[in-house]
């Protein structure tokens, strides 16, 4: 099996250091997973507001937030107000086409815990985007998933954040998370030194993000914030992958069926064609009602013009 290693691009979003793995040098999405940011881990000083992402729109995608540690308040143009905490998923669906769209804000909340509050002024989160199949008419929505299937295999804890997964022991797990194409997402956490074998779906493309620690597989070592990518053709005859790691190593295993449509990204927009990206920039910057209003006094971000010669 050929595994390609994608390296992160360092950036910053809303005051937090980010390792961006997707999009990555013209590489296509992994299934419908088209964007992948690892935010943090970061600690905030007492006078630091933490994550502050102002009002901005999305189109033709779902934002999928997987919280490893910390708390973020999500507010959107549907009126949703939801704090996401450790081991939870927030899923916001923008809907498809020029009549749909959504806007939201994200900001740190520092909960007043009985123990040292300083210990809770931090963030460690994975944010992914899932491109929507544009041949379906999909409505905007927001869902919060506080409880997800969780189990252990040997020394490894697994949490199924989306999709169905059959473990090597044959047990089937099903996450409640809303999907519009076939996807899987599993948080893999080594509680002790050990190994685990993960099943692969033959029709899927797969990826593994090293969130913390170091991973060994098939004689190669992978470091924190590297993304292993293996496509359908790389997997012929391969139905599983063995992963070896030390205590504390954490991974995000993703996979999915490729969409039938093209996936173009510009700023916070996804579309299957350039004209629709252009129109979404115009609509957002002119306050079009398709993006609604967020009940927030946070800054409203401005969409940059699509560059001439944009190819996606
Ligand atoms: Mn967003």
Topology readout:
Elements lengths: L3 E3 L2 E5 L2 E7 L10 E11 L8 E7 L2 E9 L2 E5 L4 E4 L4 E5 L8 E7 L13 E10 L9 E5 L4 E4 L2 E7 L1 E3 L5 E3 L8 E8 L3 E6 L5 E8 L2 E3 L2 E3 L4 E4 L9 E6 L4 E7 L7 E3 L2 E3 L2 H12 L27
Antiparallel strand pairs: 1-22, 2-3, 3-4, 4-11, 5-10, 6-9, 6-11, 7-8, 7-10, 9-12, 13-14, 14-17, 15-16, 17-24, 18-23, 19-22, 19-24, 20-21, 20-23, 25-26
The protein binds manganese (II) ion (MN).
The site of manganese (II) ion (MN) has 5 residues, from strand 5.
How are helices and strands ordered from N to C?
A: EEEEEEEEEEEEEEEEEEEEEEEEEEH
Low-confidence stretches: none
What is the number of beta strands? 26
Whole-number average pLDDT? 94
Number of helices: 1
Task: Summarize the biggest pleated sheet.
Answer: 7 strands, antiparallel
Q: Order of strands across the widest beta sheet?
A: 1-22-19-24-17-14-13
Structural class: mainly beta
Whole-number total of structural domains = 1
The CATH class designation is: Mainly Beta
**β-strand amount:** over 45%
Radius of gyration equals 19 Å
CATH topology: Jelly Rolls
Under the CATH scheme, which architecture would be assigned?
A: Sandwich
CATH superfamily heading: Jelly Rolls
Helix content: under 10%
User: What is the overall silhouette?
Assistant: globular
User: What's the N-to-C terminus distance?
Assistant: 29 Å
Domain Pirin C-terminal: 187-288
Domain Pirin N-terminal: 23-130
Cofactor: Fe cation
Pfam families: Pirin, Pirin_C
């Amino acid at each position: 099996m050929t595994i390609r290693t994608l390296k992160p691009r360092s950036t910053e979003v809303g005051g937090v250091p980010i390792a961006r793995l997707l999009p990555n040098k013209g590489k296509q999405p992994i299934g419908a997973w088209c964007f992948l940011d690892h935010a943090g881990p970061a600690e905030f000083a007492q006078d630091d507001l933490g994550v502050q992402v102002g009002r901005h729109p999305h189109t033709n995608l779902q934002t999928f937030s997987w919280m490893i540690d910390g708390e973020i308040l999500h507010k959107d143009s549907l009126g949703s107000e939801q704090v996401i905490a450790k081991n939870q998923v927030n899923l916001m669906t923008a809907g498809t086409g020029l009549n749909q769209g959504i806007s939201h804000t994200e900001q740190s909340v520092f909960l007043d815990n009985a123990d040292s509050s300083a210990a809770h002024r931090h963030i460690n989160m994975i944010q992914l985007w899932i491109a929507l199949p544009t041949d379906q008419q999909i409505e905007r929505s927001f869902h919060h998933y506080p409880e997800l299937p969780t189990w252990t295999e040997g020394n490894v804890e697994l949490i199924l954040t989306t999709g169905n997964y059959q473990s090597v022991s044959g047990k089937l797990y099903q996450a409640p998370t809303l999907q519009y194409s076939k996807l899987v997402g599993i948080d893999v956490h080594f509680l002790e030194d050990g190994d685990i074998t993960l099943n692969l779906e033959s029709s899927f493309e797969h990826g593994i993000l090293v969130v913390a620690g170091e991973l060994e597989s098939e004689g190669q070592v992978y470091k924190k914030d590297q993304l292993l990518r293996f496509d359908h053709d790389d997997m012929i005859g391969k139905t599983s992958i063995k992963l070896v790691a030390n205590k504390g190593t954490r991974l995000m295993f993703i996979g999915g069926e490729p969409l039938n449509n093209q996936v173009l990204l510009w700023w916070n927009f996804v579309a299957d064609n350039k004209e629709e990206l252009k129109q979404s920039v115009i609509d957002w910057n002119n306050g079009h009602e398709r993006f609604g209003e967020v009940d927030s006094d946070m800054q409203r971000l401005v969409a940059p013009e699509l560059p001439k010669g944009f190819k996606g």
